[in-house]
Amino acid sequence: MDPIAQPDALDPPANLDEFRRRLAARPLWTVVLLLIAAGVAVLWVDMRVSRVPIDPTKSSAAAGDSSEEILPPSSIDRLVGLAKDQLARAEVFGYGVSVAVMLLAVLLVDAKRRWAWPRLVMMSLGAGLSANIVKLFLARTRPKYCAMGTDVWHTFGKFLAFGKGGSHQQSFPSSHTATAVGLAVALSTLYPRGRWLFFALAALCGCQRIAFQAHFTSDVCWGAALGWLVAVGLGRAKLEWLGIDRLGRWMGRERNDQ
Fold first, then answer.
1. 14-48+90-257 classified as CATH 1.20.144
2. How far is Cα 205 from Cα 207, in angstroms, rounded to an integer?
3. Between the CA atoms of 119, 206, 174 and 144, what dihedral angle is there, to the nearest 10 degrees?
4. Amino acid 1: pLDDT
């Protein structure tokens, strides 16, 4: 057999079947259960982590200490501020609109693999949508709206809240993280050479949600678990009944006919 004809594991998959086989080789429940367990384990430090100031130059003002003279920021403060600014940009990897733009770029740039595009949408935006649905069933106050000294169990609210309380009560789970993990799984399957970059961006997105007090650490872990479950679980399933595979084949055939 000609070794040149053998596909490289780091090359993009040639068709939908190979795409699904690569996803089938990834562990599903092991990763999901580990992330769920990690979320349970960090519950004990949720409140402590969420109160770490992300801007040290404002920590004294936040504490109500106005008697001390405000000193100009040191070199370390500037570095922390720069890191904070860069971390804020990581949110785009899990934000629905920016993810849709990235997926549109994949559709336009990589015409040879348009057959994968419906799956990319389902694995990324579908993961975020799943997290938003879960939010309707269990309310949890976001860290930025929790009073100092609140017990972690009191951050959880009413079961079957169905969105009552608005965004303030939708901390569990992190839909940004679910979207980012789903996108990382999808892109790393289609473009294996960029797998470390994609998952690093997903991790940074999760860190951004914690640092800016949008979610507790446990919310991010559980959002990652849901994102992995949706992306890997649905991504490797046959979806003829939903029309996803039919649409993908049509998009791929349209390119081949040109």
1. yes
2. 5
3. -160
4. 40
